[in-house]
Amino acid sequence: MTAPLVGLQDQTLGWGGQAVLRGIDLSLSAGERVVLLGRSGVGKSTLLAALQGGIAARVALVPQDHGLVGSLSVFHNVWMGVLDDHGTASNLRTLVWPAKAQRARVEAVLEVVGLGTLGRRTVGRLSGGQRQRVALARALLRRGDVVLGDEPVTALDPSQGALLLTHLVTQFPTAVLALHDIDQALRTATRIVGLRGGGIVLDAPAADLTAVDLLALYR
């Protein structure tokens, strides 16, 4: 039997000394597309962070706050996804004078997310939706074994968000996404984990669930 990528057993999770989730039992296996659902503030981000901390494989992250540096260009923010693949001297050269091949790699993922002409623009001049696209491009450039996304398309219009979410999960063998859209969750996930009242109240294959089942998480 293949060992899970990460497993949490009877964990209490929180931040700032305050428990948010208790009695958490959850494992993630390679090849799964898991969506975390529940009300805002229920602990989806907390659970996502705990999973991230336990995964030894290469992870690409799309955080809810985007994790961008406003004073740097779109190119440099996307390139941050692969900084740990290069040494300090190489990264300093890229900061000052990116190579043509590096620009081409970034431009390819910017085209995918609809920002193909904005590589030289500073992130501070972008809209919220454009910043979210930069965060998606950074994850796509990084690639890896697992992608973790915390509301990764919430700032985009529904049709574009759905397209980019589908593209994102097809680029990674395994995905864990915190979402708020039930229909999006059912389309994307192979497995849905529902949070309510400080714990996991649902953990089932997406194919076995309906929108009505999931609405109970928000009552």
From TrEMBL:
<keyword id="KW-0813">Transport</keyword>
<dbReference type="InterPro" id="IPR003593">
    <property type="entry name" value="AAA+_ATPase"/>
</dbReference>
<dbReference type="InterPro" id="IPR027417">
    <property type="entry name" value="P-loop_NTPase"/>
</dbReference>
<dbReference type="Pfam" id="PF00005">
    <property type="entry name" value="ABC_tran"/>
</dbReference>
<protein>
    <submittedName>
        <fullName>Phosphonate transport system ATP-binding protein</fullName>
    </submittedName>
</protein>
<dbReference type="InterPro" id="IPR050093">
    <property type="entry name" value="ABC_SmlMolc_Importer"/>
</dbReference>
<dbReference type="InterPro" id="IPR017871">
    <property type="entry name" value="ABC_transporter-like_CS"/>
</dbReference>
<keyword id="KW-0067">ATP-binding</keyword>
<keyword id="KW-0547">Nucleotide-binding</keyword>
<dbReference type="GO" id="GO:0005524">
    <property type="term" value="F:ATP binding"/>
</dbReference>
<dbReference type="InterPro" id="IPR003439">
    <property type="entry name" value="ABC_transporter-like_ATP-bd"/>
</dbReference>
<feature type="domain" description="ABC transporter">
    <location>
        <begin position="6"/>
        <end position="214"/>
    </location>
</feature>
<dbReference type="GO" id="GO:0016887">
    <property type="term" value="F:ATP hydrolysis activity"/>
</dbReference>
